[in-house]
From TrEMBL:
UniProt keywords, alphabetically: Signal
Entry superkingdom: Bacteria
Signal peptide limits: 1-21
Higher taxonomy: Bacteria, Pseudomonadati, Bacteroidota, Flavobacteriia, Flavobacteriales
Name of the featured protein: Uncharacterized protein
Amino acid sequence: MKRQFKIITLFAFLIFNNINAQLNSKTEILTINWPKEEDWHIVDQQNNATGTMTTIVLLKGKETIANHNEIGTTYIYHGSLSVPIETEIEELYLSLKKYAPTAKKTIIEKDDKAKHPWIICKIESPEKSMIHYAIQGKNESYSNFWSTKQNEITPESQEKWVEIFKSSKIILE
């Protein structure tokens, strides 16, 4: 009887460990609902040489990378939890200022106490402006942009893209 109990206990332990390992091996994904009516679609997706970053480029309708008015970009930093999202945004802004010294950054909203801390800002410059949304997942960091070839973001565009980015979700698959 004791032997059967030990076997059952060992079997239960192994099943529990297997289930726990499967739960912890789920992939984290950020889902963004790019406007379907505008036909946003992925035109390029690449991993860097070290596998630590994935870049996804989206365009709408029949626009091309060489000839577009709007572009969406997502950078996924795998296992990159060391850089705070505000630092990431500041680094991007300072890098952009080298090429567009008159660029201005405005923080729109942020929640650093959320389960997944996030920040949304706009960066406007003479040749290109963008809404930037950065969110920190459990295993990855995500940096998302909607860019336009306008020198300012209209209030309507800002409202639209803030709503789209805030409605995104981090899920486990």
